[in-house]
């Protein structure tokens, strides 16, 4: 083999950043050394791996083909180096992306469990909407994602981790809070504050209600759950959130779960990873620890 791991690392860094100068900073190399390594790799392979698009370096179809294979080799090299250096079979960094609900309620316990059993394994965490986590996995920003709902992209493998459900909530002083049952007509008359489009929560809510109510009065859309909770608790709005996000506020009497018999909003929380990714022991470790963590818990959270 004529190419080196350093050349593949340069290729990977340029693909990640879209810039030779940023790749040089990432690898602590000079820009000229970075450019030279990339040029040598392209010459050895006999194919252009990038083309310039303005100030950005975009992958050619050859670069797209090479990227997952280069990632795999670099990952294996890191495992070998870290494994022998630290004398731990599971070591190195895993980049995890998670949507808001699992990130807040489940991921902290998952990371703590892994820290106890595999102290040399490092987990970086990005908290994004479901759509952004999927994009991050596809763009190699994350080795593993945790999302709400389904992903139908055939470039992604998906494995159900657990299930939760959404609930419609109001403040304790909202007129609907005292009703034994709330009708669809009453929901249609209410003011709503909801998660933004692209979030897993919003997708499930929209798919559950669109065939029942033609036009909801949506006043505001926000990314952050605490904002929605506070607006509902202190105003005359309704919202729909995962039960995990509102459970303790319902128990404290600040929010009330409304009984809407027509709405059933159970959903899945799933691990996702690239279909073309080679077996990664760090990914397998997180999934295994996640499954162990859920044993003995209710089937629907």
From TrEMBL:
Pfam families: HTH_1, LysR_substrate. SUPFAM superfamilies: Periplasmic binding protein-like II, Winged helix' DNA-binding domain. The keyword Transcription regulation applies. Residues 1-60 form the HTH lysR-type domain. InterPro entries: LysR_HTH_N, LysR_subst-bd, WH-like_DNA-bd_sf, WH_DNA-bd_sf. It comes from the Bacteria. Coiled coil: none annotated. One of its GO terms (molecular function) is DNA-binding transcription factor activity. Keywords: DNA-binding, Transcription, Transcription regulation. Belongs to the LysR transcriptional regulatory family. PANTHER family: HTH-TYPE TRANSCRIPTIONAL REGULATOR (PTHR30126), LYSR FAMILY TRANSCRIPTIONAL REGULATOR (PTHR30126:SF94). This is Cys regulon transcriptional activator CysB. It comes from Vibrio maritimus.
